[in-house]
Amino acid sequence: MARRILQRSFYERDTITVARELLGQHLVHGRCVGRIVEVEAYVREYEGQLDRAAHASRGLTPRTRVLFGPGGFAYVYLIYGVHECLNVTAEGRGIPGCVLVRALEPVSGFDIDGEERSCSGPGKLTRAMGITRAHYGADLTRAPLTVHEGTRTEPITAGPRIGISHCADWPLRFYLADNRFVSRSPSKPNKRNPQVG
DNA sequence: TTCACGATTAGCT
DNA sequence: GCTAATCGTGAAG
């Protein structure tokens, strides 16, 4: 386990590029290692439209401060008063792109007590890896929370982001389609994610 | 200060 | 398919 840590230059690129290229890389915290198999991109704008689903779309606030800084830092927030979600900042200072890590394929360090899909969901993987809001603003090029070079041979599938009401049809969710650790099967149409076309 | 609501999950019908 | 749980955030008063 001497894989190279992804450096600042990896993160300080277009958010969608960073999102796609995070697939297959290894998220490391302490002894826990998980292979990233599902992410979502949250951008400033997409095809000329503001991304109103992104927390940063309301501007710089105490919570979103880290999004406006350099790429390669952790943005962790509490959702529904219950779960913590991990994002990786992208782009450079002043451009608030980030990538939500939605699912991991466990590699090592997890107590697999019959719960092999314990990292299949954004709230589940933070709990399994011990990532909390205490990691808000953590530099991902330094221990204890880092992303290491991994491998990917599978093709990338794009689809609508999950659980949002704005910009619900934008294809900014990226995942490895046949990987059983992805949080959900390809989305079927529903109230929040209506069929388009 | 108050208040509506959310990038989810587990558990139930 | 539906909903409770649970609380920080940000906008409004």
Overview of the molecule:
Residues about 185-195 have low confidence and may be disordered. The N and C termini lie far apart (about 45 Å). It contains three helices and ten strands, in the order ααβββββββαβββ. Strands 1, 2, 5, 6, 7, 8, 9 and 10 form an eight-stranded antiparallel β-sheet that branches. With about 200 residues, the protein is mainly beta. It binds a DNA duplex (13 and 13 nucleotides) through strand 5, strand 6 and helix 3.
- Sheet of most strands: 8 strands, antiparallel
The percent range for strand residues is 25-35%
Order of helices and strands: HHEEEEEEEHEEE
Helix % is: 10-25%
Please tell me what the overall shape is. Answer: globular
State the assembly state of the protein chains.
single chain
Structural class of the secondary elements? mainly beta
* Mean model confidence by pLDDT: 93
Which residue ranges are poorly predicted, with pLDDT under 50 across at least 5 consecutive positions? 187-197
Number of strands: 10
What is the distance, rounded to the nearest whole angstrom, between the alpha carbons of the first and last residues?
47 Å
Global Rg = 16 Å
